[in-house]
Amino acid sequence: MNDEGGIDMGEYASSDAAATLARAAELGSVVRRGTRWFAWYQVVFGCGAGLQLLIVGLLKPPYAASFSGVVFGAVMAGLGVYAGRQPVVRRGFGKRIAITVGAWALLYAAVLVPGFICFQGAAAWWMPGAVAVALPGLIGGYLEARR
């Protein structure tokens, strides 16, 4: 209150600002908790990609393409539904998922092409290749969990 019985605007403004800052901190905490799902998303993506590559490399055609397509299609459909049900995404989500998928695509091609040409059915090629293909998702999930 000021000398004339009115509200001191400085006092009002500082209490309003403090309440706004407290609300912003609360919302930031809610968003951080609400975006933890993306770490799991990336880990499941990585594991699904590795499994799909193992199926392609170790099963004989035509079963390899059919079975791997069904498995990876189910993983991606499940991840799509899961992601669509999440209330929030963290800033930079699009960039991080693009990096993950881009790295996966490069590694996938780097393992798949030589594998089909020289290493069909050779577990010694496909197993480490599957781990390499899974790494973008696993590393992305780890980094996201640390945020």
Mean pLDDT, rounded to whole units?
A: 85
Q: Which residue ranges are poorly predicted, with pLDDT under 50 across at least 5 consecutive positions?
A: none
Largest sheet: none
Write down the Rg.
24 Å
Shape, per Cα inertia axes: elongated
In terms of quaternary structure, what is this? single chain
Classify the beta-strand content into a percent band: under 5%
N-to-C order of helices and strands: HHHHH
Terminal Cα span: 44 Å
Total of helices: 5
Number of strands: 0
What would your notes on this structure say?
This protein is an all-alpha fold. The chain is 82% helix and 0% strand. The chain is built from five helices and no strands. It has helices spanning 9-34, 37-58, 63-84, 93-118, 123-146. Helix 2 (37-58) packs antiparallel against helix 3, helix 2 (37-58) packs antiparallel against helix 5 (123-146) and helix 4 (93-118) packs antiparallel against helix 5. The longest helix is centred in the N-terminal third of the chain and has 26 residues, at 9-34. The radius of gyration is 24 Å and the shape is elongated. The relative contact order is 0.15. The mean pLDDT is 85.
